[in-house]
């Protein structure tokens, strides 16, 4: 059964449609055959019952009374009617008022031996062969003949069955012809429907492997759903590839200088004879090593953000929880104990659709920048305003000048405040997180000579699951 399902799954759509229509036609053909045979039998019964009734009525009309006795002259017209079924055997019986057979076959008996059966039809047998009989009664009220004479006329069922089979056969011929036409039409329709897919497949096969531009969407509406999904997938793949290229470029760009500096300091240490100068070289090596460690942390954070931007499932996140988690981890208290860090969150939820881990990495980078370049106290919080949810870090410093502020957040930008000791990736990571979840990074000066870096997203409407 499993192998059959696999084979059916690998067949073409044309074969599937043709097989489905053929199955429906076979199943419908069985039902139509039964219905057509039932209709044919009923039509044949009705037609030949009329012939029997006409013959019996003609015979009953020809009965006369002469010399106080019934005289029967069988009319030729009655047997001409019955001759319309030439292969059937015909039988008749005329029963007098006393139940005595006046003429005909005594073997023909009324149903269940009922002598009071006057009019109608019944099924029986005629010399061992199934037959159908009609009974017509004629009442006589003569001085010497008072009673009812019954005329029973019957014939076998060969013509009736032949007629039923003929009706059924013709119905199946029509069904087979229409079914064949439907199968051929379905093949033509399916092939015409699949032509856009063939064009799409041809276009994809002829494309350069690095070409991830959107496909042409001038296709039928049903196919456009697949094209839009494929374009969306290629767009995500293009973003991933661009992000990986940027990450590799960032890594090569950022590691080249500190590694070269460490190598130079190590060479100086080897060639330096004075102990005091060696101690200064070791101190510089330690400083460079610490800076390189921070750089590697930021590069790993950027790689994590790039990976989770398109792969992680978006879920409803309360930005207050993100701010609370980063605050309670307490890294700032260890690295910068001289700074006062204050948590500022309200009672109302601030919910967005994003990834928890990416938001934490972005907020940590914003907090580290504030601790490194800002002034105490530093406030970390989340707020909701006008349908826009934001998570932010604010310090007491005035921030950079407007020219530098416009360039912050771009790759490799260190800014005037960095003193050549930072990679410039902190804000770039936050900016990447904002773009990944349809938000933005805002760097702005607030009232009271304070500087705020905020990630702003569209808030989840109330009541949405």
Automatic annotation (TrEMBL):
<feature type="domain" description="HAMP">
    <location>
        <begin position="191"/>
        <end position="242"/>
    </location>
</feature>
<keyword id="KW-0597">Phosphoprotein</keyword>
<dbReference type="InterPro" id="IPR050428">
    <property type="entry name" value="TCS_sensor_his_kinase"/>
</dbReference>
<keyword id="KW-0812">Transmembrane</keyword>
<feature type="transmembrane region" description="Helical">
    <location>
        <begin position="17"/>
        <end position="40"/>
    </location>
</feature>
<dbReference type="InterPro" id="IPR003660">
    <property type="entry name" value="HAMP_dom"/>
</dbReference>
<keyword id="KW-0808">Transferase</keyword>
<dbReference type="Pfam" id="PF00512">
    <property type="entry name" value="HisKA"/>
</dbReference>
<dbReference type="InterPro" id="IPR003594">
    <property type="entry name" value="HATPase_dom"/>
</dbReference>
<keyword id="KW-0902">Two-component regulatory system</keyword>
<dbReference type="GO" id="GO:0000155">
    <property type="term" value="F:phosphorelay sensor kinase activity"/>
</dbReference>
<protein>
    <recommendedName>
        <fullName>histidine kinase</fullName>
        <ecNumber>2.7.13.3</ecNumber>
    </recommendedName>
</protein>
<dbReference type="Pfam" id="PF08521">
    <property type="entry name" value="2CSK_N"/>
</dbReference>
<feature type="transmembrane region" description="Helical">
    <location>
        <begin position="171"/>
        <end position="190"/>
    </location>
</feature>
<feature type="domain" description="Histidine kinase">
    <location>
        <begin position="250"/>
        <end position="459"/>
    </location>
</feature>
<dbReference type="InterPro" id="IPR036097">
    <property type="entry name" value="HisK_dim/P_sf"/>
</dbReference>
<keyword id="KW-0472">Membrane</keyword>
<dbReference type="InterPro" id="IPR036890">
    <property type="entry name" value="HATPase_C_sf"/>
</dbReference>
<dbReference type="GO" id="GO:0005886">
    <property type="term" value="C:plasma membrane"/>
</dbReference>
<keyword id="KW-0418">Kinase</keyword>
<keyword id="KW-1133">Transmembrane helix</keyword>
<dbReference type="InterPro" id="IPR003661">
    <property type="entry name" value="HisK_dim/P_dom"/>
</dbReference>
<dbReference type="Pfam" id="PF02518">
    <property type="entry name" value="HATPase_c"/>
</dbReference>
<dbReference type="InterPro" id="IPR013727">
    <property type="entry name" value="2CSK_N"/>
</dbReference>
<dbReference type="InterPro" id="IPR005467">
    <property type="entry name" value="His_kinase_dom"/>
</dbReference>
């Amino acid at each position: 059964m499993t192998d059959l399902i696999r084979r059916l799954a690998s067949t073409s759509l044309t074969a599937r449609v043709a097989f489905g229509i053929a199955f429906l036609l076979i199943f419908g053909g069985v039902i139509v055959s039964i219905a057509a045979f039932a209709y044919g039998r009923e039509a044949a019964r009705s037609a030949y019952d009329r012939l029997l009734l006409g013959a019996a009525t003609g015979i009953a009309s020809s009965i006369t009374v002469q010399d106080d006795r019934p005289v029967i002259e069988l009319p030729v017209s009655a047997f001409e009617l019955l001759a319309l079924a030439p292969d059937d055997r015909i039988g008749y019986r005329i029963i007098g008022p006393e139940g005595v057979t006046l003429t005909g076959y005594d073997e023909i008996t009324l149903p269940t031996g009922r002598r009071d059966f006057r009019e109608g039809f019944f099924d029986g047998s005629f010399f061992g062969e199934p037959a159908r009989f009609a009974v017509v009664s004629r009442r006589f009220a003569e001085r010497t003949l008072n009673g009812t004479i019954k005329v029973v006329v019957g014939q076998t069922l060969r013509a009736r069955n032949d007629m039923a089979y003929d009706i059924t056969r013709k119905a199946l011929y029509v069904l087979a012809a229409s079914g064949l036409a439907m199968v051929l039409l379905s093949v033509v329709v399916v092939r015409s429907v699949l032509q856009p897919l063939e064009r799409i497949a041809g276009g994809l096969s002829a494309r350069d492997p690095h070409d991830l531009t959107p496909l042409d969407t001038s296709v039928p509406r049903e196919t456009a759903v697949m094209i839009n999904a494929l374009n969306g997938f290629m767009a995500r793949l293009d973003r991933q590839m661009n992000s990986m290229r940027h990450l590799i470029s960032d890594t090569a760009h950022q590691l080249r200088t500190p590694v070269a500096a460490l190598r130079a300091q190590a060479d100086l240490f080897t060639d330096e004879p004075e102990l005091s100068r060696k101690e200064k070289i070791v101190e510089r090596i330690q400083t460079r090593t610490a800076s390189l460690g921070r750089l590697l942390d930021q590069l790993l954070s950027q790689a994590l953000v790039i990976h989770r931007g398109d792969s992680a499932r978006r879920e409803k996140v309360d930005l207050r929880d993100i701010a609370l988690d980063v605050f309670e981890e307490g890294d700032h208290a260890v690295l910068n104990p001289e700074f006062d860090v204050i948590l500022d969150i309200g009672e109302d939820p601030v919910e967005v659709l994003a990834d928890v881990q990416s938001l934490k990495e972005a907020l940590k980078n914003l907090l580290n920048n504030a601790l490194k370049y800002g002034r105490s106290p530093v406030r970390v919080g989340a707020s909701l305003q006008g349908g826009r949810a934001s998570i932010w870090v604010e310090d007491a410093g005035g921030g950079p000048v407007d020219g530098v502020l416009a360039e912050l957040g771009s790759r490799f930008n260190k800014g005037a405040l960095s003193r050549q000791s930072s990679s410039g990736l902190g804000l770039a990571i936050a900016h990447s997180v904002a773009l990944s979840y349809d938000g933005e990074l805002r760097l702005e000066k607030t009232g009271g000579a304070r500087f705020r870096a905020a990630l702003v997203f569209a808030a989840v409407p109330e009541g949405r699951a």
